[in-house]
Predict the 3D structure of the following.
Amino acid sequence: MMRHEMPAEAVAGRRERGCGAECFKSDSSIQMLSVQPDTKPKGCAGCNRKIKDRYLLKALDKYWHEDCLKCACCDCRLGEVGSTLYTKANLILCRRDYLRLFGVTGNCAACSKLIPAFEMVMRAKDNVYHLDCFACQLCNQRFCVGDKFFLKNNMILCQTDYEEGLMKEGYAPQVR
């Protein structure tokens, strides 16, 4: 994480819309600050000791040692994994654990297996797919973002397989 030289009082977090009353999220909610030598040491919200280090973290309107602001699940140092943290049910969490515990999950439209909330996905209309499953369901050609594909009866088809099917059956395209 980049170290910012700025007075501690200059930083404030905000509530994220749609996250619920118990969830605090902000892309600037964790700030690394330089301790000013002429100021009184601040108390750490994690261990209650004075922060005498050169840098401290400010999150949730409190001050923390770099080692004390950790995810309650995986124990990762939140100042090192990014500038966002989540709180819910009195837990301070990294993004991955927040999504794992409280995120909405669904099933892949191709393989029907569960898609964890933290996993990257591909979408086509209302269907959601694992990245590995986002392929033509006849020839297994993989698609990338921006590639042309067709949906027929909720099946993903490449252009070649779709056009072959058109010739056989005469069905209408849904280009995406």
Summary: DSSP finds three helices and eleven strands in the chain. The chain has a mean pLDDT of 77.
